[in-house]
Structure prediction request, 106 residues.
Amino acid sequence: MHIIQLENILLSDQTPQAIVKIADFGLARFFADNSELRTVCGSPLYVAPEILDIGMSSETYTPAVDMWSVGVILFILLSVRDVIMPTRPISAYFFDAITGKLTFRK
Prediction:
């Protein structure tokens, strides 16, 4: 799927019983058991290192990349802060994801 980001999570209403839905705004893809995932896509804040590694040391990735996005969402929701710092270029977040050295806003 690899479109999981906070902006794509919707609630059916404003009650505690609301149904959580994940919206697709164009980049989602269904995964069949025998298919290979090769598309390099995703938002800079949510993209998994495996996706950025396509063409370097790997040619495919698994649906597990969505768990990276879920981790970013959980961090934002539990810490009540965003990971993006306005003074850093977007390319810095790609580098952080690839190297595993993430920098968070204080």
User: Anything to note?
Assistant: The chain has a mean pLDDT of 76. The chain has one domain: 6-99.
